[in-house]
Specification:
- This protein is mainly alpha-helical and 338 residues long.
- The chain has 18 helices and no strands.
- Helix 3 runs antiparallel to helix 4, helix 10 runs antiparallel to helix 11 and helix 13 packs antiparallel against helix 14.
Length: 338
């Protein structure tokens, strides 16, 4: 201590003194010597290791954190700085019950090393523990910049929407996030949540618009569920039967044997909606099935109303080919088996 700080002998003497105090078991004196060495040689690894050991063994957690912060001021590599920020944050939470310091350390770590999984997860957990849900949502949205997998992105949107709805009483924001998610990843996984919010917010038209946009990019396996939900919205809350017919027919283009869609078209037909369009769709299916009786009933019901003579003439025009097919399908000898 008597030597000037610029004396070249200082580090060697401080190291020698620290070693002697360690051998004598004089921990407090050894710490003072190691700290003196760090003043003279801030990057001395033996001093850092020794002080870390002393502070850990004695439970001097505040002094250990001060040491880590001092080391951080001289760290240059991003990996080293990230590791130190994380150590400081974890020490603050686990040993010092200092959540504010931990938060600052994690946030600085993410600012310097965006996308760090360890810092992101830990900071998200800290936001939850402190009920800072607005910050949690901001963090979740920031995570999207580093996540490319569609299903992982959808999960982030879904979690953020749940927090916005349940914790922040912001269903409109949650609804917007879910619509964005379905456009990014066109499928019906989030459909039930979207439908619930659309009902509470009276925004089925926005939901339908998003589905109409997304369904164009959806894979065939996903289009079926999306088209069915879209058709149900048009038929039900939106009261747009013509649009519902188009959606059901789009569904049948991918899944010709979808029974629910066929039943829905029959229901709309019987209610008098888009009869010509529906008749065209259903007639093709009855022809393929050879269900001539049902086909004739359908065509008879779809012929425009008018004087009996005109109605008979129109029906004859519409059914002539199918009647001949039906006749051709009958056995040549009516009394023969079958």
């Amino acid at each position: 201590n008597a030597l000037p700080e610029d004396d070249a002998r200082g580090p060697a003497l401080a190291r020698l003194a620290a070693g002697l105090f360690e051998e004598l078991g004089q921990g407090a004196d050894a710490i003072r010597a190691w700290e003196r060495l760090r003043v003279l040689a801030p990057d001395a690894e033996d001093a850092i290791e020794a002080l870390t050991r002393h502070f850990t063994e004695s439970g001097a957690w505040a002094r250990l954190r001060d040491l880590l912060r001092a080391i951080l001021t001289r760290a240059r590599s991003s990996d080293a700085r990230l590791a130190l920020h994380l150590q400081i944050a974890e020490l603050s939470v686990e040993r010092l019950d200092d959540q504010q310091s931990a938060r600052e350390a994690y946030e600085t770590a993410l600012a310097e090393s965006p996308g760090s999984p360890r810092a992101t997860v830990a900071l998200g957990r800290l936001y939850q523990e402190t009920d800072d849900w607005s910050a949690w949502v901001e963090l979740a949205m920031a995570r999207l910049g580093d996540v490319q997998h569609p299903e992982a992105r959808r999960e982030i949107y879904a979690e953020a929407a749940e927090v916005l709805t349940e914790r922040l009483d912001s269903p409109a924001h949650a609804f917007a996030l879910l619509l964005k998610a379905v456009i990014e990843q066109p499928d019906d996984v989030l459909g039930p949540r979207i439908e619930t919010l659309a009902k509470s917010l009276d925004r089925f038209s926005d939901a339908a618009h998003a589905y109409e946009t997304a369904i164009k990019e959806a894979r065939p396996a996903h289009r079926r569920g999306m088209a069915m939900r879209l058709a149900e919205w048009f038929e039900g809350p939106l009261n747009q039967p013509d649009a519902a017919v188009r959606a059901y027919r789009s569904l049948l283009a991918d899944a010709p044997d979808d029974v629910l869609a066929l039943i829905a078209l029959h229901r709309l037909f019987e209610a008098g909606h888009a009869r010509e369009s529906i008749a065209e769709e259903l007639a093709e299916r009855h022809r393929k099935a050879g269900d001539w009786e049902r086909l004739h009933e359908l065509l008879a019901a779809s012929v425009p109303a008018g004087p009996p003579e005109a109605r008979a003439e129109n029906f004859a025009d519409v059914t002539r080919n199918d009647t001949s097919r039906a006749a051709g399908a009958m056995p040549a000898n009516p009394s023969s088996p079958g």
